[in-house]
Amino acid sequence: MIRISTFLGLLFLWLLLSACEPPDPSLVGAGPRPANAPPPSEERLNEERAGAVRPLEKESNREELDPERIELIVQEFVKSLEPPAQPASWTNAPPSASEYADWARQAGEKAAMASAQARQFHSLLPDHPLAEVAKRSELEMLRMAVKMGAHSHIDQLEKLEMERAKAEGAGAEAFFEIRFMAARNHIRAASGGEEILKLSEIKRQAESLIDDFPNEPRALELLWLYGEQADGAEAIRVAERIKESSVAPEKLKREARALLIREDPQGRDFPIVFESADGRRIDGESLKGRKVLLHFWATWSPEAIGQFALLKQMLGSIGRDKLAVLSFNMDLLKSDFQKVIDEQSPDWPQQFDGEGYQNAFAKQVGVEELPACVLLDEQGRILVSGITTNLEEVLKKQFNID
Known about the structure:
Layout: H1 4-19, H2 25-28, H3 42-58, H4 67-80, H5 97-124, H6 131-147, H7 154-167, H8 172-190, H9 195-212, H10 217-227, H11 232-243, H12 250-263, E1 273-275, E2 281-283, E3 291-297, H13 302-318, E4 323-329, H14 334-344, E5 350-351, H15 360-364, E6 372-376, E7 382-387, H16 391-398
Parallel strand pairs: 3-4, 4-5
Antiparallel strand pairs: 1-2, 3-6, 6-7
Helix pairs in contact: 1-6, 3-5, 4-5, 5-6, 6-7, 7-8, 8-9, 9-10, 10-11, 11-12
């Protein structure tokens, strides 16, 4: 009689096998074929798959199964769980990525065959002591199959996961997790092709999830994964959709707004709220009615620092009732920031967050080099972006100064 401990031990070997890339031969033990034998062909795997399940299919009447036949079925079932051995040559010469991928995929197909055996076993012998363990192994072996690259079984795995979740009375969150994992598996399966294929699969899976789970934020996060890699109009379309969504997390909306500003800045609202370095709360709403210049600088950009003197001069010429200036520092150390402030003595708000190029406002307008400025209109919308060393020229033009 086969012990449950033996059965579980074989499952543990499969878990070790699926967790290693490439797996260590010492972990997976001996398989049913010689260690120096090459991996079986796809045709042979299909033959084995068909042969493996045929004896069980013939036994349609449980009452006709005598003890000897039941023991034989158990033996065959346990044998199907034996992990495949790796080629002996891998001990001295590790396989290439493609060689390992091929071997893992074939091992995954064997796991799928073992899953099929498990399903027939617990269906045919529901009262056997191993039936419940076999029922669990049906799912675990199918998971291993997909994990090891047998991607043709992704939909089958999703269906089985759904069946089990329904039988357990699971809620909507559990069903989403199953669908989300299936989506990730499909994307992973597509990633071996061209990048455009991967992007199209991300989009397809995201749209499907959103259709079925419209109130699930992670479905939108998957769509954003596609959108931020898409080009031009498509990226803008996705960003607009997320910006207007009622379920998208605020962080995701900020990233979407930043993309819209970078890709299509003209006329975009640019909300501003921060605490200045001297402790004042700065809110863009209070600045409406005036044009607002966003000035980005750092101690390692002498050109950006040089704009302090120009800005003082332009504020005097234009008037503070028509122009407000907000400066955003992109240094990492506040001591560096403070040294320049003490030297330049600007009398307008300064923002410092110590994030360098990751400064939240700099990221929103896509600052990649300094000097950099952006001019907002009287309603807080982007009027002119991409201002660098031409700051004086832009301001004179906007305020009709000769």
